[in-house]
Specification:
By secondary structure, this protein is mainly α. It has one domain. The protein has nine helices and no strands. Helix 1 crosses helix 2. The chain is elongated and about 60 Å long.
């Protein structure tokens, strides 16, 4: 592996252990076994390196999360919504550091147009992926209206539930409560 790859790998490790905002260039250098000059040479800036690390980590993590969200074939639960929410909550336990880092990066995006644009692209991909998962339809077969409604609402629900779990898992809703709440919302007519 060259310095560029070493830096990216070191930045990803720091992202998970120290967080996006608290990682310094010296932390990345120590984790990667490179030198300070390598950051500027290969990435232009520490911000660009951390943005690349965040995106690489999210991409790697995406496959794991997609499998968890699809639910386990061994799960005998016949309710697909309940299986889905069990999968979401399982990712909070197994990938807590990355969920925290993604929320922290979102906040940092307020100060970085590049990061904000890349995070927005990830959110858009997430809308399509969630709509495909929930409808059982391939992403290239989805219509824009389904993505904008189902995908966007599911993304909002998932983000809110994750924030509740990260802040206070003792009082955060469990999968049964989430599904009951969704069904109660669906039954409201107006």
């Amino acid at each position: 592996m060259g310095h560029r790859e070493d830096l990216l790998d070191g930045a990803k490790r720091c992202l998970l252990t120290k967080g996006y905002a608290r990682t310094t260039a010296r932390d990345v250098v120590a984790a990667s076994g490179t030198n300070l000059g390598s950051i500027g040479y290969h990435y232009g800036s520490m911000e660009a390196l951390m943005t690349a690390a965040m995106l690489a980590a999210m991409e790697e993590w995406g496959e794991t999360v997609a499998k968890a969200l699809a639910g386990s074939p061994e799960d005998p639960e016949p309710d697909p919504l309940l299986r889905y929410w069990r999968g979401v909550l399982a990712t909070i336990e197994t990938d807590r550091d990355l969920w925290v880092a993604s929320i922290e990066a979102m906040v940092q995006g307020e100060h970085s147009a590049q990061l904000r644009a890349q995070m927005a692209g990830g959110i858009e991909q997430g809308r399509w992926g969630l709509a495909a998962l929930l409808t059982g339809t391939a992403e290239d077969q989805l219509d824009e209206a389904t993505v904008r409604s189902l995908g966007s609402v599911q993304m909002a629900l998932m983000s809110g539930v994750i924030i509740q779990w990260l802040a206070d898992p003792a009082t955060a809703p469990g999968p049964e409560q989430i599904v009951a709440g969704l069904r109660a919302l669906a039954s409201i007519s107006g």
